[in-house]
């Protein structure tokens, strides 16, 4: 059997650790899909549409480190590109692979189906260039290896998506075989001089401060610096907070962990410690309008050091070409056995009184948000990943105390409602051994609901909490109007539709605490497919954090144009 361009691509995907790739078929990619099916150890997993396909690959990348989606030209790829924008925003190496017109048609003046009706087919590549770190068009077998390798290598190095289009008549052309995986996996090492000087500067900075704190940002995972941050926290002994989007990126049972720093909606006592601190060391943060609570809590100035994945700046000097983990490990070593900088954790324990556990509600009383959140946090185990959709689900998830090993996935930078259903599907494909719990609002669910059918198809025992509060409650808090009401659905009833003749998904309704507890029990027992529990709560029964945060973000949105 001839070795082909499609085989080359598939073998590279397998070499970088992919066991699955997500796909929607179309005539520009059918031959390519045939080639990929022939790769040992690489399963083809299908999605209902290309937006979902992109988000599934994004969710897979969260669990697995990288993901891939294969779609058809234009009608497919333009939908998937939204999810690729999301992967860029969320720092995830998702490889979008699109079938493309026959190489003979490029530059021929021919008008092809599924295109915008002009004979120039470069528009998709041009769009992809803006949303990826590398975008290539393969129109001959000879150039395929170099182009495919460039895209994959760049995505892995930069933790950003990449784009590969392959002309439909080239996918099955004979091709060279790939060499060792290291050609696409090897990282560019840190510059040792830059690391040494950054460590020295940071050591001086911390020594000169009495009340340092560590702030864990959402890019710390992409930087591969989660473990190094724990080692540094052990060495310094100071208070450590996570930013909202970095929930779960630092162990919550660590003695230094104080909770979420998020301005006015921080965990109790955390804002006060940050206000008091004279040295905030922010590791791979993203300061945007959401994370700064409408620009009301933006750590900056001389008391703040901001370190990013490949760059640290301390007191006006930029140290480039570093890996954050190398700098953190260098700093941990340099700190050695020096006295702990633990004033911030000591003070935190003085001012912070742990809240009493939320008492269970009367099981027959109508379900309220607080009871729902209490019961959902009860299903979290060290092997759970909780995926929380944009909406009040964010705030509910952020308030939950995570057992050691539990993870949370949020999409706070891109914030595409509907992301979570396909992302959960992708995550569950990658991590079949974990307990996967999704918390999603009714409005968000309506965008991508059909991907639950793929969970049914692959018998994935995902637990879905569908919060039916009859609308876009987060938007109600930011700016209300008739556009925030959504048509009600029989969400639990949908499971019958998705099951059809052979599925084992379970759809349940909970209108009281007692019904929710029973539904959870049934859901945990169902190992043959997803369980969707429709939780009915009042339209404006939301967290108080959402109300405070929403008001501040709305204020930031409403700033009048400045006079020039
Ligand atoms: C919108 C948002 O029902 O959650 O908890 O009721 O708010 P809550 P729901 O899922 O509603 C979500 C809704 C409409 N955002 O409140 S957050 C605007 C928006 C977006 N993404 C896309 N379109 C619109 N974030 C793709
Ligand atoms: Mg809602």
| Count of individual helical segments | 21
Task: Give the termini separation.
Answer: 69 Å
Class computed from helices, strands and strand pairing: alpha/beta
Tell me the strand percentage band.
15-25%
Bound molecules: ligand DPX, magnesium ion
What is the β-strand count?
19
Round the mean pLDDT to the nearest integer and report it. 97
Poorly predicted segments = none
Q: Shape, please?
A: globular
Largest beta-sheet characterization = 7 strands, mixed
Radius of gyration computed on alpha carbons? 25 Å
Write a concise keyword list for the protein shown above.
single chain, 564 residues, alpha/beta, 6-stranded parallel beta sheet, 21 helices, binds ligand DPX, binds magnesium ion
How would you portray this structure in words?
The chain is of the alpha/beta class and about 575 residues long. It is about 35% helix and about 15% strand. The chain has 21 helices and 19 strands. The protein has helices spanning about 5-15, 30-35, 50-65, 75-90, 125-130, 145-160, 180-185, 190-205, 225-235, 270-275, 325-335, 345-350, 370-375, 390-400, 420-430, 440-450, 450-455, 475-480, 495-500, 515-525, 545-555; strands at about 20-25, 45, 65-70, 95-100, 135-140, 160-165, 210-215, 240, 255-260, 280-285, 305-310, 310-315, 315-320, 385-390, 405-410, 435-440, 465-470, 505-510, 530-535. The strands form three sheets. A seven-stranded mixed beta sheet has the order 9-8-7-10-11-12-13, sandwiched between helices. A hairpin with a 2-residue loop joins strand 11 and strand 12. Helix 3 runs parallel beside helix 4, helix 8 packs across helix 11 and helix 9 (about 225-235) packs parallel to helix 11. The longest helix has 16 residues, at about 190-205. The N and C termini lie far apart (about 70 Å). The mean pLDDT is about 95. Ligand DPX binds next to helix 14, helix 16 and helix 18.
């Amino acid at each position: 059997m001839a070795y082909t361009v499609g085989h080359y691509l598939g073998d590279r995907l397998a070499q970088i650790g992919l066991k699955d790739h997500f796909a929607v078929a179309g005539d520009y990619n059918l031959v390519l899909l045939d080639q990929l099916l022939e790769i040992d150890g690489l399963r083809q997993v299908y999605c209902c549409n290309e937006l979902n396909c992109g988000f599934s690959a994004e969710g897979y990348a969260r669990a697995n480190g990288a993901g891939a989606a294969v779609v058809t030209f234009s009608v497919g790829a333009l939908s998937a590109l939204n999810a690729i924008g999301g992967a860029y925003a969320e720092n995830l190496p998702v490889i979008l692979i699109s079938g493309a017109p026959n190489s003979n048609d490029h530059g021929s003046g021919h008008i092809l189906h599924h295109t915008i009706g002009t004979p120039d087919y470069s528009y998709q590549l041009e769009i992809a260039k803006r949303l990826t770190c590398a975008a290539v068009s393969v129109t001959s077998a000879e150039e395929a290896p170099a182009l495919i390798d460039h895209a994959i290598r760049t995505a892995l190095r930069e933790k950003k998506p990449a784009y590969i289009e392959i002309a439909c008549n080239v996918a099955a052309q004979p091709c060279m075989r790939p060499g060792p995986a290291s050609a696409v996996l090897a990282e560019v090492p840190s510059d040792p001089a830059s690391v040494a000087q950054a460590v020295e500067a940071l050591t001086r900075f911390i020594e000169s401060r009495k009340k340092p704190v560590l702030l864990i940002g959402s890019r710390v995972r992409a930087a591969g610096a989660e473990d190094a941050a724990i080692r540094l926290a052990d060495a310094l002994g100071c208070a450590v907070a996570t930013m909202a989007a970095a929930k779960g990126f630092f162990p919550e049972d660590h003695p230094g962990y104080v909770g979420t720093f998020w301005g006015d909606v921080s965990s109790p006592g955390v804002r006060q410690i940050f206000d008091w601190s004279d040295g905030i060391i922010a590791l791979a943060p993203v300061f945007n309008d959401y994370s700064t609570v409408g620009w009301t809590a933006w750590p900056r100035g001389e008391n703040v050091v901001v370190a990013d994945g490949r760059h640290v700046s301390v007191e006006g000097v930029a140290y480039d070409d570093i890996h954050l983990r190398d700098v953190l490990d260098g700093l941990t070593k340099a700190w050695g056995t020096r006295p702990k900088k633990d004033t911030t954790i000591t003070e935190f324990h003085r001012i912070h009184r742990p809240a009493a556990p939320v008492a269970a509600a009367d099981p027959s009383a109508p379900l309220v948000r607080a009871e729902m959140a209490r019961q959902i946090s009860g299903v979290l185990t060290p092997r759970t990943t909780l995926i929380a959709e944009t909406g009040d689900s964010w705030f509910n998830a952020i308030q939950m105390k995570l057992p050691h090993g539990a993870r949370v996935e949020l999409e706070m930078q891109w914030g595409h409602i509907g992301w979570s259903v396909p992302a959960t599907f992708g995550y569950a494909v990658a991590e079949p051994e974990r307990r996967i719990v999704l918390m999603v609002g009714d409005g968000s669910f309506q965008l991508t609901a059909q991907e639950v059918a793929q969970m049914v198809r692959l018998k994935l025992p995902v637990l879905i909490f569908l919060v039916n509060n009859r609308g876009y409650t987060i938007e109600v808090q930011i700016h209300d109007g008739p556009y925030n009401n959504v048509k009600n659905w029989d969400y639990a009833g949908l499971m019958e539709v998705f099951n059809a003749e052979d599925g084992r998904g379970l759809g349940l309704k909970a209108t009281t605490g007692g019904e929710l507890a029973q539904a959870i029990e049934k859901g945990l027992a169902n190992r043959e497919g997803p369980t969707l529990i429709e939780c009915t709560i009042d339209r404006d029964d939301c967290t108080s954090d959402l109300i405070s945060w929403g008001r501040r973000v709305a204020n930031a949105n409403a700033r009048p144009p400045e006079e020039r």
